[in-house]
Amino acid sequence: MAKITFNSYKKAIQDHYEIVKNKDITSVLLTPSPAQLRNYCTMLVDKGLSKKDEEIFKAFFETKSDEKLKKSIESCNTDKFKTIISFLKDKRDSEMALRIEMASIIVDFSPRPYADFLTSNSIATSDNKQFVTVINGDNDSETKVRFGVEEVKEEIVKAKNFSSKNIKKKITLGLIGLIGISSIAYTAKNLIIPDAQCMQWQNNHYEKVDCNKQNQQGIIKSIDIIPFDPIKAELIKIKVSDTTTFFKNGKAILWYCKVNGKPEFFNTHGIHPETGKALKPVTKYIINKYVK
């Protein structure tokens, strides 16, 4: 059984795109262009985004704290969408997590984002089959083995062609097989979702850690061990000076949060991992007061 990885997530999104592109009545997904995808994103905002999708949108479009999300989309450079189109249509790989998450929202892939895909009890399929679930559990855990409904129906039809003796034999063998599969699935649990698929803030960046590791103490509170999230994992606390580049094309490219009255600077949008406060785009006032 294959280990669930970020590459698994990317492949599942691409497979899902192949299914939905021909069902899109707008034809945007079938023949996407950068400008079309930008307009499509504004339409998704109008329809309403989930909290997680909105967070990804704000990070991708570099939305300022005092700026409307739709405004930042309308003013963005459409070149941002070229790599997303290449990822979906040409199956070109991309290591930037934000682009992959944007692709998952655009094609409405579920479960998303990657953290939910990694920890979900469902297994993504490329043909949208329905499933039946066999559960083998105890007080501490539950193992689910899933079979396609159509496959089960087929076996039932075949069984009707046998004598009752053969049917009983088939059922007995089937139960033995299910128990064996369940046992294998339980044993392979750590291979499918290993303990290392968690992360914890370490000084100035996130590191993958054993999910059972004890929490460490931070500046304000104990730093939690959380499921690995490729977007959050990109967060890095950086040291700045008067030669640091804080803006690009008039937009802030660094974020900050005050801790004990002094700002700490980070490379991207998000939440301060130790205080839990939202990071803010850096301003000239903050630079002049605390840096220069």
Automatic annotation (TrEMBL):
**Key words, A-Z:** Membrane, Transmembrane, Transmembrane helix
Reply yes or no: does the keyword Membrane apply. yes
- UniProt entry tagged with the keyword Transmembrane helix: yes
What residue intervals traverse the membrane? 171-188
Q: What is this protein called?
A: Uncharacterized protein
